[in-house]
TrEMBL record:
<comment type="pathway">
    <text>Energy metabolism; oxidative phosphorylation.</text>
</comment>
<dbReference type="GO" id="GO:0005739">
    <property type="term" value="C:mitochondrion"/>
</dbReference>
<comment type="similarity">
    <text>Belongs to the cytochrome c oxidase VIII family.</text>
</comment>
<keyword id="KW-0809">Transit peptide</keyword>
<protein>
    <submittedName>
        <fullName>Si:dkey-85n7.8</fullName>
    </submittedName>
</protein>
<dbReference type="Pfam" id="PF02285">
    <property type="entry name" value="COX8"/>
</dbReference>
<keyword id="KW-0999">Mitochondrion inner membrane</keyword>
<keyword id="KW-1133">Transmembrane helix</keyword>
<keyword id="KW-0812">Transmembrane</keyword>
<dbReference type="InterPro" id="IPR003205">
    <property type="entry name" value="Cyt_c_oxidase_su8"/>
</dbReference>
<dbReference type="GO" id="GO:0006123">
    <property type="term" value="P:mitochondrial electron transport, cytochrome c to oxygen"/>
</dbReference>
<dbReference type="GO" id="GO:0005743">
    <property type="term" value="C:mitochondrial inner membrane"/>
</dbReference>
<keyword id="KW-0472">Membrane</keyword>
<feature type="transmembrane region" description="Helical">
    <location>
        <begin position="40"/>
        <end position="60"/>
    </location>
</feature>
<dbReference type="GO" id="GO:0045277">
    <property type="term" value="C:respiratory chain complex IV"/>
</dbReference>
<dbReference type="InterPro" id="IPR036548">
    <property type="entry name" value="Cyt_c_oxidase_su8_sf"/>
</dbReference>
<keyword id="KW-0496">Mitochondrion</keyword>
Length: 74
């Protein structure tokens, strides 16, 4: 297997180092006004889990029906 990864040249490495040294983040943030409690965090995680897993569960539940269908005619 031939690797397509190419090592950067010396000038490329120097350029990357120069950019990294001169780059400063311009993101400023304040502390939150209200702290989020553990119940709100658990609720948010449950909502994300249901949002991601419900469609996959629906598909997995209906796989036998999908297999019994005749393929569409072109």
């Amino acid at each position: 297997m031939i690797s397509t990864f190419k090592r950067p040249s010396l000038t490329g490495l120097l350029l990357i180092k120069a950019i990294q040294q001169t780059h400063t983040s311009r993101i400023y943030s304040k502390p939150p006004k209200d702290k989020i409690g553990p119940m709100q965090s658990v609720f948010a995680l449950c909502v994300f889990a249901v949002t991601l897993l419900a469609p996959a569960g629906w598909i997995m539940h209906h796989v036998p029906e999908y297999r019994q269908r005749t393929p569409p005619h072109p």
